[in-house]
Model the fold of this input.
Amino acid sequence: MAAIAIPKALLPSDGRFGSGPSKVRPEALAALAQRGAGIIGTSHRQTPVRDLVGRVRAMLGELFSLPDGYEIVLGNGGSACFWDIATFCLIQDKSQHCTFGEFSAKFAEGVERAPHLGAPAVRSAPYGERIDPEADERVDAYALIQNETSTGVAVAPQRPRHADGSTARGLVLVDGTSAAGGMRIRLEETDAYYFAPQKCFGSDGGLWLAALSPAAIERAERLVSERYVPAFLDLTAAIENARLNQTYNTPAIVTLLLLADQLEWMLTNGGLEWAAQRAERSAAHLYDWAERSDVATPFVAKADDRSPVVATIDIAAEIDAAAIAKTLRDNGVVDTEPYRRLGRNQLRIGMYPTVDPDDVVALTACIDHVVAALA
Done:
């Protein structure tokens, strides 16, 4: 196939549209070079790093309007590590999982293999659709996901209710990995809202962060005293260290510095509501473009279930989506490939708050140009 050149006038100012790792703001990288010299390569137990961790915890509390008694906790390993932490420290015996994509399903699969837990109850929906939790008195933990990164399905997490309106008793564990910082959340509807900083928070990976309720903290303290828990997965150790503004293991200081800069940027501009509206502007254009297109269609059929931060767009069978993504990449517009295991002829586009909505407009113009050239 002959190379296709996209006119420079059509190209976005920044061509990064990854769903994770995501675009890091150039201003954050510049700030890292300025601020990092005096802190990178120093002890994480000393005041400079502990002050940085304290700032991150305080800013997250402000961003999420942290309810009374909730605490921001953090540790190494990313969100996948937190699944194992929850398996040991937050699920007492039986959990219920709502699965409608690769990541929500992986947590359920891990719990199913845990020899110390009962078989989980799994509520599944076809990829591209959603399913909500169902109140069940046999369940002591409900595992939900706010944004399924693999499929672009998003939900507003809520505690499950019985038919009479009463709230179910189990802890509510919400994976907010690709949603936190770009979608609204009511933390009082959750007991553990956990996420990683390499998506909406425009940082590197390798760290998990969580907003924990008093009930989640009490559950962890009790379970750790009753069963064997590997030290790396001990949530109570993470809680104790977080209260000292540090982590159990040595953290990546670069990740914390980039996260702190992103949080400052968000709070200065208006906080979570501003960040959510910025992502929604990008999403509104992209989905409207796809619905009007002759070759593109939103993969998620129900508009209310479409993610404002990760869009999956099906491409008509006669056009090779991989060829579109490759041509975009050749022209400096990168990371629009679909989730590998979904196996669809589609594009997947990250629209996190770091992405300028005007660049999403430019991206759709680029796609139209490439499709016309391929045809």
The two ends are 12 Å apart (CA to CA). The chain has a mean pLDDT of 96. The domain at 27-268 is CATH 3.40.640.10 (Aspartate Aminotransferase; domain 2). The chain has ten helices and twelve strands.
